[in-house]
Amino acid sequence: MFQDSLFSRRASEPPAVEPVQGVSRVVDYIKRIIAQNKTLGNIRVRGEVSGFSNRSGRLYFDLKENSDILKCVVWASDAVKMPPFKDGDEIICGGEYGTFAARSQYQMFVKSVELTGIGALYAQFEALKEQFRKEGLFEAARKRPLPAFPRRIAVVSARGKGAEDFLKTLQRRAPYIEARFVETRVQGDGAQMDIAEAIDKASRMDVDLIVLTRGGGSYEDLFPFNLEPVVRAIVRAKHPVLSAIGHTGDVHVSDFVADHSCETPSNAAQYFGEIGDRLLSRVQRAETRMQHVVQSIVAGRTQQYDWLCGALDRSMTALVRERERALLGLERRLNAQTPQRRLAQRAERITALRSRLEVLARHALQPRDERIRQLQRRLTHAQTYALRPAAQRWELLSTRLESIDPEAPLARGYAIVTLNGRAVRDAAIVPEGATIEAKVQRGKLTARVERKDPNG
Q1: Looking at per-residue confidence, does 199 or 327 come out higher?
Q2: Do residues 94 and 14 both lie within one domain?
Q3: Above pLDDT 70, what percent of the chain?
Q4: Strand order in 444-448's β-sheet?
Q5: What is the residue range of 206's domain?
């Protein structure tokens, strides 16, 4: 037998070579010693529940008394028969004892649970909570609002996974926030004093907000955050305090007293990221509204510009037509007053008179021939003097007509420059690179503008 060969050697026997056994045989032997011990089998254990968890119906927790711990397991078939209990409850457990070989750990397989009342730590927690509630420290009116857009924060915590998760998530979600780490011890005897001193140190820093945080742990490890030194430090802090302690579901007095609380360190970092998201959303909405306003203004100004351009075109067209009508009227009046027209009229009268004279000559007596010749001479003389003023007026009107002829300057070397069919009077309105036309006395020229001088 393994037991005889390993443990039954008599002390009187001379020393021999130490026996060597495999780990499994040693572990199995220890397991049988614990399982077959009748004294242990008849013992029920009283203690305070800590580290309670439910995994697919199986219950895992520690029974704690002072600094001593007994690991406990309740199988799902036994758990349904037991009254509910939680961290901090004081209970009496009965069951079997065994080992967990994978961790070299002894434990109790609980078969029965008897509730004896809340544990010492939980009772202390409830007493402290009631005390601070009576002092009004939980009142919302006492708490300070968190800054809308913090730029610098003080992180009060120990170096560990909780602080690391917070800082990594903060860097990813809110890289614009500067985090100043204030390291402190967060568990163990006297940890509440260290935490309070760290909060006081953070209060003296130039920050917008203090974040009090740590990762998860047992009920006992997290208990310093329920104690008075930490609570008083939060209350007297010069900056708003955000509490983010432990896992989801953990509740501490520091959460009730802090100006704001989050369930986990990661959730606290997400809170700061959401601030940036909200501000970014506001900026985007403001930018969208601004774009709509600008587009509306531009559309209104464009419509106004188009209307003014149309009105200007209509006014110019009407003015040109009016000037054309006036010019046509002047042209008709001028044509009516030309010497050629008046000479033609006189010629018609002379022709008529000549016809009459011929008739009279044929029918009149011969003695009148002389009279007729005299009249003809007088008529010729009168005609000569009558037409001279008309000829002079014709020359004067011709000169005036030439002076108002728009194409008269072309004969002197000038040109009429047009852009898109419109006369150009100002070089500033012609863009560089535009194509213009220049009308000269004989023909047209097309050119592209390479350079312009509005003041030249």
Answers
A1: 199
A2: yes
A3: 93
A4: 422-423, 416-419, 435-439, 444-448
A5: 124-277
